[in-house]
Amino acid sequence: MRFRGGDSFGWWAYTLLLAGVALIFDAADRRVPFSVVASGPLDEVAHFATAALGLLVLECFVDIPRRFYVAALVASVAIDLDHIPLYLGLLGNQDQRPVTHSLATVIVFVVAAVASRGHRAVLAGASAGLVLHFARDIAEGPPGVRMLWPLQQTAWSASYWWFLGMIIAFTVARLILVAALIPRTRVRLFQALTGTSSASAPFRGRPAVLRIDFDAPSPFGVFGAGPYTGCCSVGVPMGNPLVIQFTND
């Protein structure tokens, strides 16, 4: 999906849509009496939209594989599965969120991402999704989130205004950054460079073409893209000329 010039509706419409969904479903969740069936879906949609909005801002600064975003969105709602043992009365206090709602869980995923090579982007994405989930949980008020468990049992809690401010900040940041083309380039993460191998033998002597598209869809394009500068790498066999093409179609 590309949104250029007169077709600029897409990139800001997705941002405003996500902000509206997050605010509407959060407001409904606060007004509906708590129950897994009634308020649960409202809560998860609000979490999903909030996480997606935050990831759109992150996308302005980094060029990350789509699997990072998918993992982040899944984690932003899947973490609430840790409530099931509480609802079944198997462990813990139902008046508090599980201890897995803490930075300890985030640290586990971060350490796993550092240690892993093949799944680093997925694990890092899950970490980002968890942080965005906890940020909204804190803004839901009591019982709060025991972020520093097991070092501290104090639950972090904030008012609705924290959540409203977070949504406004994400929305304004995304709109300004994309409209002003800031930053001009993005940092590439979790993307291995292609190298030469025996598979390139049939192409020796032929020119290698590197196409740079200045209106390329983002890896997070499922929610819209801005006119970012493309950034890519290509492995060129020894002795081959390299042709660089700049396009704006």
Describe the structure.
By secondary structure, the chain is mostly helical. It has 2 domains: 5-179, no CATH class; 188-247, no CATH class. The protein is 46% helix and 6% strand. It has 7 helices and 4 strands; from the N terminus they run H-H-E-H-H-H-H-H-E-E-E. It has helices at 9-31, 39-59, 66-78, 84-87, 103-115, 120-139, 160-179; strands at 62-63, 187-188, 208-213, 242-247. The strands form 2 sheets. The chain has a two-stranded parallel sheet with strand order 1-2. The protein has a two-stranded parallel sheet with strand order 3-4. Helix 1 (9-31) packs antiparallel against helix 2, helix 2 crosses helix 6 (120-139) and helix 5 packs antiparallel against helix 6 (120-139). The longest helix is centred in the N-terminal third of the chain and has 23 residues, at 9-31. The radius of gyration is 22 Å and the shape is globular.
Outline:
The protein is mostly helical and 249 residues long.
Structural class from helices and strands? Answer: mainly alpha
| Number of separate helices | 7
Tally of discrete structural domains: 2
Overall 3D form: globular
Number of strand elements: 4
Low-confidence stretches: 1-7, 193-219, 221-249
Average pLDDT level: 80
Q: Could you give the order of strands across the largest sheet?
A: 1-2
Element string (H = helix, E = strand)? HHEHHHHHEEE
- Sheet with the most strands? 2 strands, parallel
- Rg, Cα atoms, Å: 22 Å
